[in-house]
Design brief:
Bound molecules: fe (ii) ion
Structural class: alpha/beta
Shape: globular
Radius of gyration: 20 Å
Helix content: 40-55%
Length: 386
Amino acid sequence: MSDRIIDFRMPQSLVMGIGASRQLPDILQKKGIKKALIVTDQGIVQAGLLPAIRAPIEAAGVGVAVFDGVEPDPRIEIVAACVSAFKEAGAGAVVGLGGGSSIDIAKLVSIVAAHGGQVTDYIGTGRIPGPGAPCFALPTTAGTGSEVTPIAILSDTNAHLKKGIVSEYLYPVAAIVDPSLMVSAPPSVTAYTGMDALTHAIEAYTNRFAVPFVDALALEAVRQTGWHLRRAVTCGIDLDARSGMARAATLGGMCLGSVNTAAVHALAYPLGGTFNVPHGLANTVLLPAVMEFNLPANLDKYAAIAEALGEETRGLSRREAALRAIRAVKDLSVDVGIPQGMRHLGIPQDAIPKMAEGAMEVTRLMNNNPRAITVRDVRLIYENAY
Ligand SMILES: [Fe+2]
């Protein structure tokens, strides 16, 4: 598949670097925005991040309203509440400030506010009819890369599943990636989100539909994570480490539009949807077991991942070199304090058959897996990750 044609898309603008968020007022003004709704969550409010974003926008003569009701792994219902806030405020643009949840909600509000209906009308791929209200994304975690993706994820609490919405119209107008907004993320959040970024990179790089151009982005995201995640977790105020992880997350996100993830993310959906396990944590406990299953599909690429994570592979056989990638991922997840196995996440072992069925339904991602996978394989992977 290496000569497959890709249509590589990005936000119109990626503004990146320490202090980049100070450019937001200027960016809003140049786009002719009169009033913006900031979409965020209580964690951001309590961390005291809001005034430093809000005040300069107002000082530039752009009106601001705030919706601070985004929750982790947001439910479908949150979108309608946020659209009401957007309309009541008379806003013309949305600013997503927070982790992937706040940015995903901002992206979806921009669509529902412009096209009407319910957000559930747009679930699936390619169902949004046109551009939404201008959306600007300021991530405060280094993980989902949502600021540069055409994807938003919601929790369907009735079906106990995560639902994905994918559309070219979900790219924000501008992604503003400022590592200084990430220093207040607590160690556990830094670890989970950083491992999510690593998972995006590994799943894109080893993807059945991988292409060399995206491979380059993915492998660099792996390398940046290997260099910077431990330090970002153990010393959150280290701006160099935060910058490295911001690079990793954005590079990882850039792999999702044209290649996307595979079985790790599909298997993680039921952990999030049924047992409320945070997305990055769910991915991390599953990643080594899925890598082990996928290893025979591409020994050379797994060996390259091992090298990118700093493993010495000289003198090893191809298979031994590839196996080092799994060890490196496990070592990293131990070092950043992640529980080793699903048994530690309050998931009963007898839930595995049902979870395996749920994961198989995520065909959008399962089809990307480098090795063909059956429901029996999925049950075994869950058992190995337990
Ligand atoms: Fe993810």
